[in-house]
# Entry
Amino acid sequence: RDVTGVQTCALPISPRLQPLAAEPSHPDLTFYVERDANGVILFREDICVGREELIAAARGLLLQEIVRACHQDTDWLAILHAGACGTNSSCVLFPASTQAGKSTLASALMHSGLSYFTDDSAPIERRTMRVVAMPFALMLREGSWPMIESRFPELANQPVLNRFGQNVKFLAPSVKAGAGNSAQATSLVF
# Structure
């Protein structure tokens, strides 16, 4: 589905969506983001799908809603705050808190040749226990740049952006599962 019609108000989402860029077209679905005194509100067309106090949480909600929109008939078991890498048939989930190194680990696993499914939110289908690919760009904080640049020299040329007081760069997945792909979750590593 074409869900490129995302309009934002100071929601740092564009760099994450860059790997999904397509030719301009009329989107099947449009998301709107508004701010009010209580936080950030996300709309899918004219329906409110959520409110978050923090912009970072609203960004995560938007990414999850994009996946839900692309897989409307899927019954989700959960969407874990986790990374996932593997092969086209199986993957390893690595849940962790924010800034624990999920994106850095996903980058290293991609460099070793594994397919990238996600580095932030891992949607799991209830019936099959398959992780659906969310091939968004990886957000890498300044502390991981030296290690990642040795594996992905193109990261050195990416612009530095400030996200919530931290310098970050975005890396497009080099070995990613194809659009709509999923893999059986075979391991959960903490």
User: Anything to note?
Assistant: The first helix runs from residue 14 to 17. The helical segments are 14-17, 55-70, 102-111, 145-151. The longest strand covers residues 30-36.
